Amino acid sequence: MNAATSTEPSTVGWVGRLKSAAQRQSDGYAPERSLSGYAGAIGVFSAYCAALALAGRATGRRLPDEVRPLDLLVGAAAVFRFSKLVSRNTVTSPIRAPFTQYSGPGGPAETIDEARGDGARRVVGELITCPFCLSVWTATTYTAGLVLFPRATRTAAAGLAVLTGADLLQLSSTALTRVATGDDD
Q1: What distance, in Å, lies between the first and last C-alpha atoms of the chain?
Q2: Which of 7, 62, 65, 141 makes the best surface tag, with the fewest CB within 10 Å?
Q3: pLDDT average, residue stretch 13-28
């Protein structure tokens, strides 16, 4: 009997017990939630972070000694706008369509979509319809971009921040016009 054969049954037993315990936890959590799907998403996110770290190491990039306050402000506006653009904007609904179904209109130029299917499809649908969930991935990408491609990242973030400001002005103008004209519709 070789070493691989002698450890195989204990590995299968250990893995089997782990799978069984995970399945019991998932079954007891909520039938409509896929804990294994969420665990898979955490795994993919962890692999994404590792790949970004490896890219930084391979290119010789170093973490900055400090983060500029302006990068935080512009980054927050850019992450907000990009996450809303992907998760809610009408024009990006074809990106969401394989994983979601139309539920109804949202805010201006927005739709509300609901995740469909089960397993990985549903988890992706939940991720791309939730601006808060998507913000985690977007903020990670923005942060890595500041290390790997600072000029391009700042330029793209500036554009999204300007779009955020324009959206605020559009919505403010519409609200002020309604107040001034007495139109509450």
Answers
A1: 80
A2: 65
A3: 79
